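Figure S4 source data
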Amino acid sequence: MATFLISDKSRTQNIRNKLATKKKLICGISWKSSSDQIGSNKSIELSNLKELLQIPNILFVNIQYEANTLEVINFCNQFNLKILLMHRFYLLKMIL
């Protein structure tokens, strides 16, 4: 099986330390691509993740580059869900 994503172990540990959770798995989510050519083929509506986001013992972290913060907050409030919003600069710094 091919591996597409490989995490940087020290950056991963840094994020884990900042999130300070040992009782939950951490799962980054991104649901929309801004690519003009293939974005529609690899994008879904946030509402399509509702059932996934209800899985217990997982901390879902927004890693969407251009997430509409208000959209995420309203979605979470509407369905009583939690998605951790991290500052975009922090994410960019961690990814680079």
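Figure S5 source data
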Amino acid sequence: MLNKQGKNCIRKIKELDARDDESELDKFDKEDRIILFAEQSWIFFKQEVVLYKKACLKWLKQGDLNSIFFSFDCQVEKSEKQD
């Protein structure tokens, strides 16, 4: 969903840029371009938040597995020292 919105914003910005190359943009087109850039920034921010949350979840899952492995390894070393 976010990716489609981002691509749509980029497409519209490119269209406005192409029209600006041909002739000067009017006041409303310039305002639309500014709004599109703000919207694009917001979409990118939301995508970063989603990726950050996914990374945290992945880290938590892998961190738990690492903790179990580390705990087991420590128990083995402790039992070897006691023998």
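The chain has a mean pLDDT of 84. Residues 2-82 form one domain.
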